[in-house]
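Action item from last meeting closed. Structure (892 res):
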């Protein structure tokens, strides 16, 4: 980035700057330091969502640690009309306010120095509503405007000036002036409402507990408020807790499912932490249009509508997402909110923990949902990114505001969650829980670092040695690869010869031997007629692990129960015996087998025929999620094919998956429903099964009412996206037009999601142009267009047309992506290319938009590397793989 953007505003505009001391020359583009610290905020905002801007009045109590005439703080796009400081003697000192850096670093320059000690900063300002799902932004539902916030990580500074860092935790006193009839919701309960006349009401809210800026939230507008009464007391919480649902007008009644299931999920968390929900009330806000997720604002959690608005018979995917995400956000009330990271380099602590416990809590609340393998599946998913030379470590230094958003990625969430699962298993479930409780007790209403966390777990669990193993995993990137071979040369004393290195796929620049971990390693094996397991802490590059067996094992699985964050590889005989027994493996071991097998093929370590046989064996595994994972590897690996070879392998994909689909029973449990939906989608969309497709076009037409009145019962809602895709591709324009119209007009987020997913699979060039026009006309609500653009870029049939459209409309399209995640989204869009030529082009294209996507560098390096790895794999393995598929089933 050029220095021109660092110093956007002229320094010389203010005469008071002659008083600046040297420390004020360069804006602090990361931490502000402790020379001036806030102790309390009083904020009054006037918010009318029908207008284009809002206004604020802020008084920040601060402590000056020395006499000073300049104060750095955060503020962005604030048009300040008044600013002054009152010193410790309550004397007024005039001041000016200047924004110095695009990331929201501002300077208050005093007309004379203020003495050390307490002081108050006073600012009055106006600011525009944000339009890209960030800061305080406007959305529309049913023709009515609403305002709502999303502050994490650093957007609070666009709404009020302050010390916008997680480490500054202080109380807030908030008041909101709103239109008469509008609802105003924030962190704490409302304590009074005053009629100001002229259709305006001043809502005053209770003082908050100590909080960082990023956890404050507001929602103002004609919302429905569903008062759900009190969540009753339980063994951990002696008092009731007020629960409400907030949704766009007319949508409140669709919150019953989400509200009804809250008490039970919350009780699981309270039981785990051994302390009650730490705040005064709980509001669940269904954000009209959605913003791409959910946010753990204290007392006022925001969610995409899709995550909260559903009925009891909603598709199982949607109810699972609600359950897990709701558990995640509520868990943050303790982990993240009650105890907050001191700085963004430790945001992984928040997100790893919430990711890990959301599955644990969901599984306890809904055991039939089988969430117990979800953390493992997430960690395996993160390994693709962690296999890149440009991967980041979990605990990554953050030395610039522009790097903060980049810390929210799969490494922070899913790899981190996998780390905690591994740590828990290593110290024991109860011991780990004791460590967590100790950590919360020690740091309540304060902040903590990774060191504090590890110390708490070490002390609480009584395992002081865990620190070094844990630091090796959070302090370096990469996936450990454990190579295992069975040594039965010493008759009755079989051993495993185990070597560790960093996993590197074909074409990678990773130097595999440069990394070293302390790996909690467990192998399962069949010997002496029974299943056994042996564990060891691998602390050396090469180690011999004795097995507790009298005879040579017939099969070895080098990651027992899938408990370790590592991949394994075997000699060919070892792979073959493991695959031959795949059907008998537990689901977790089958899942890690799938990952290690896929990784071995991508590293050029196993023949294509063995790889295809292995995936086929896993596709026939009895556990629903193992089969789904196998189809995902099949879908992923066919991404290296151009259109022609893809056509030749499609029959083999059907031969592998169709028999399993035919076996699925009529059961309506969670796993069966997911399996049916995923295999149907795979066979129809990926493997192009024409016999399955035929009846679906008619069903799709019936659901949306192409020929007569719409009949939503013509197909289960969980299958709508797939059947709509068939409608879009096989019926064409009339279906496409009607589905697009209904998606634009619908207030049902789940329907819109299914429709958008199907519309994005359009292939007819003239309809692709229509879709592109609809995106640019802002026809998709909230962040829904992001998925549409990704899918059009991801599919070979539409990739080039989408790329051309993106180049022509670059700034308009980039501007539509949610502000917080632009630097992640834009580089990743090119991730599906698979040639070195495109890698270079993509590098140039994204870099040329650097000014719009600060902090994009690492994501671009990762995207370009992924393209190059794909090209290398295609070059080396494409023809072997086509041959292995076309000869499936293989004969030996
Ligand atoms: Zn989170």
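Sequence:
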């Amino acid at each position: 980035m050029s220095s021109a953007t660092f110093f956007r505003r002229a320094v010389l505009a203010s005469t008071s700057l002659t008083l600046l001391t040297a420390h004020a020359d360069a804006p602090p583009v990361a931490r502000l330091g402790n020379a001036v610290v806030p102790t309390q905020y009083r904020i009054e905002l006037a918010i009318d969502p029908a207008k284009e801007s809002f206004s604020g009045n802020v008084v920040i109590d601060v402590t000056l640690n020395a006499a000073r005439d300049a104060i750095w703080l955060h503020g962005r796009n604030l048009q300040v009309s008044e600013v002054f400081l009152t010193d410790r003697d309550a004397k007024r000192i005039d001041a000016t306010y200047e924004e110095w850096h695009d990331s929201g670093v501002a300077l208050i320059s005093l007309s004379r120095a203020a003495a050390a000690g307490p002081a108050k900063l006073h600012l009055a300002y106006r600011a525009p509503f944000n339009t890209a799902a960030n800061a305080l932004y406007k959305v529309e539902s049913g023709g009515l405007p609403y305002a709502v916030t999303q502050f994490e990580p650093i957007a609070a500074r666009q709404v009020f000036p302050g010390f916008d860092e997680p480490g500054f935790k202080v109380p807030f006193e908030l008041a909101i002036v709103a239109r008469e009839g509008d609802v105003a919701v924030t962190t704490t309960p409302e304590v009074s409402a005053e009629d100001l006349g002229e259709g305006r009401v001043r809502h005053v809210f209770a003082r908050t507990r100590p909080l960082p800026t990023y956890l404050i939230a507001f929602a103002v507008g004609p919302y429905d408020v569903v008062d759900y009464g009190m969540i009753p007391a339980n063994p951990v919480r002696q008092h009731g807790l007020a629960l409400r649902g907030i949704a766009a007008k007319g949508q409140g009644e669709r919150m019953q499912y989400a509200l009804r299931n809250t008490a039970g999920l919350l009780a699981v968390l309270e039981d785990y932490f051994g302390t009650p929900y730490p705040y005064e009330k709980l509001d669940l806000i269904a954000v009209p249009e959605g913003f791409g997720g959910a946010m753990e604002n204290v007392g006022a959690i925001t969610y995409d509508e899709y995550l909260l608005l559903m009925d009891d018979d909603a598709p199982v995917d949607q109810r699972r997402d609600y359950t897990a995400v709701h558990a995640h956000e509520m868990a943050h009330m303790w982990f993240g909110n009650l105890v907050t990271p001191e700085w963004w380099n430790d945001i992984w602590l928040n997100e790893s923990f919430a990711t890990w416990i959301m599955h644990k809590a969901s599984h306890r609340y809904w055991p039939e949902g089988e969430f117990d393998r979800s953390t493992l599946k997430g960690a395996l998913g993160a390994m693709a990114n962690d296999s890149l030379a440009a991967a980041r470590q979990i605990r990554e230094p953050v030395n610039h505001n522009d790097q903060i958003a980049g810390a929210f990625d799969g490494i922070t969430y899913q790899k981190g969650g996998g780390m905690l699962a591994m740590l828990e298993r290593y110290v024991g479930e109860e011991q780990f829980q004791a460590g967590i409780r100790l950590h919360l007790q020690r740091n309540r209403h304060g902040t903590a670092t990774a060191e504090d966390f590890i110390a708490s777990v070490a002390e609480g669990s009584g395992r002081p040695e865990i620190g070094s193993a844990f630091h090796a995993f959070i302090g370096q990137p990469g996936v450990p690869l454990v190579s295992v071979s069975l040594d039965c040369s010493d008759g009755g004393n079989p051993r495993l010869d185990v070597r560790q290195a960093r996993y590197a796929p074909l074409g990678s620049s990773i130097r595999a031997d440069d990394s070293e971990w302390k790996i909690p390693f467990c192998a399962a094996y069949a010997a002496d007629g029974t299943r056994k397991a042996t564990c060891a802490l691998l602390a050396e590059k090469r180690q011999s692990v004795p097995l507790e067996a009298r005879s040579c094992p017939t099969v070895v699985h080098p990651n027992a129960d899938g408990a370790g964050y590592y991949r394994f590889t075997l000699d060919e005989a070892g792979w073959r015996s493991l695959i031959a027994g795949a059907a008998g493996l537990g689901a977790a071991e089958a899942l890690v087998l799938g990952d290690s097998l896929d990784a071995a093929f991508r590293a050029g370590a196993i023949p294509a025929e063995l790889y295809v046989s292995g995936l086929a064996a896993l596709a026939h595994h009895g556990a629903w999620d193992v089969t789904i994972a196998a189809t995902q590897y099949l879908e992923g690996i066919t991404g290296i094919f151009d259109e022609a070879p893809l056509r030749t392998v499609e029959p083999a994909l059907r031969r592998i998956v169709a028999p399993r689909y035919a076996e699925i029973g009529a059961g309506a449990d969670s796993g069966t429903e997911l399996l049916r939906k995923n295999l149907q989608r795979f066979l129809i969309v990926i493997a192009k099964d024409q016999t399955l497709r035929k009846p679906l076009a008619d069903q799709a037409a019936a659901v949306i009412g192409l020929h007569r009145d719409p009949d939503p019962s013509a197909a289960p809602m969980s299958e709508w996206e797939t059947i709509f895709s068939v409608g879009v591709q096989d019926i064409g324009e009339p279906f496409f037009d009607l589905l697009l119209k209904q998606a634009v007009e619908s207030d049902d987020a789940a329907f819109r999601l299914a429709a958008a997913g199907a519309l994005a699979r359009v292939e007819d060039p003239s309809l692709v142009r229509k879709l592109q026009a609809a995106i640019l006309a802002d026809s998709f609500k909230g962040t829904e267009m992001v998925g549409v653009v990704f899918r059009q870029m991801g599919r070979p049939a539409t990739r080039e047309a989408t790329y051309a459209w993106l180049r022509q409309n670059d700034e308009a399209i980039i501007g539509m992506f949610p502000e917080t995640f632009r630097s992640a989204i834009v580089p990743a869009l090119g991730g599906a290319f698979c040639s070195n030529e495109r890698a270079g082009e993509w590098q140039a294209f994204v870099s040329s938009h650097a000014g719009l996507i600060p902090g994009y560098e690492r994501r671009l390096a990762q995207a370009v590397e992924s393209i190059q790895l794909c090209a290398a794999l295609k070059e080396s393995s494409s023809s072997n793989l086509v041959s292995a598929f076309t000869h499936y089933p293989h004969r030996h």
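Note appended to the action item: Confidence is low (pLDDT under 50) at residues 1-23.
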